[in-house]
Amino acid sequence: MQACVPALEAPGRTRRVWFVCDVLGIACAAGTWVLVLGAAGVLLRALLLPARDAAYGVAHGALFHLLAFLALAAHERAMLTDPGSVPLGAAPGGPRCPLCGCARPPRANHCMVCQRCIRKMDHHCPWVNNCVGEDNQKYFLLFTLYTALGSLHLLLLLAVPALRGYARGEWDSHSTLTPRASLVFLLLVALKGFLFASAMFATQMHAICTDRTRIEQLQREGAEQGRGSTWMNVKAVLGHPLSLAWISPFASPQAQRARGPRGVV
């Protein structure tokens, strides 16, 4: 499925409107939001609202909804941020892409879905309906991190008590869900979400720390101009210097990079 990318091109690397018109990707991205919001609804209806301890409900409800909010915010940034597309009709010189016609820089690859060459393209992810590249890798990393943490929190908070109660023949009569439906939902959403998101987070951290995209790993190629240290590789993606902005989906890594050269530790 090919896609069009409505973008407001501007000279240089200015911010642009970016959205990939791919039916499969849009469905997967929408499904991600439905699953996260659905998990929040199950947590409220099956555990937090029936809980007699108000402090327990408020504390765990606030924690899970914070993680869900950060995950969805990072998802939105990863989906709507230009991943590092090479401008069409770039300056002559160097190898040209036979598919989009741009002058392709080193470590850029053409995405058949986005129909553009992407700088440091790691892969095209249908779950965010976008490529993961140089300019949105931080947001994708945070999306996988907060999804894994939220899924783990839901799994520990809801699945463990439910399994214990179900094994003892106990169940909250005020719950709007049956034990069977709750267990199926938890196994499909919480457990699968945690395993999938944590695996993707580990994969992305490995790619960042080694400064090798997934495409380069599959092709057994190393970075031509590696930054030399894991610490510098991480800062190149998350920004300079080390701060709480690293874990914020609202902080732009481009702005952080501008405040410090790559050679500064």
Automatic annotation (TrEMBL):
Broad class of where this protein is predominantly found: membrane
Catalytic activity entry: L-cysteinyl-[protein] + hexadecanoyl-CoA = S-hexadecanoyl-L-cysteinyl-[protein] + CoA
Gene Ontology terms: cellular component: membrane
InterPro entries recorded: Palmitoyltrfase_DHHC (IPR001594), PFA4/ZDH16/20/ERF2-like (IPR039859)
Stretches assigned to coiled coil: none
The organism's place on the tree of life at top rank: Eukaryota
Transmembrane intervals: 23-48, 54-74, 139-163, 183-202
Family: Belongs to the DHHC palmitoyltransferase family.
Protein name per UniProt: Palmitoyltransferase
Name of the coding gene: LOC121104375
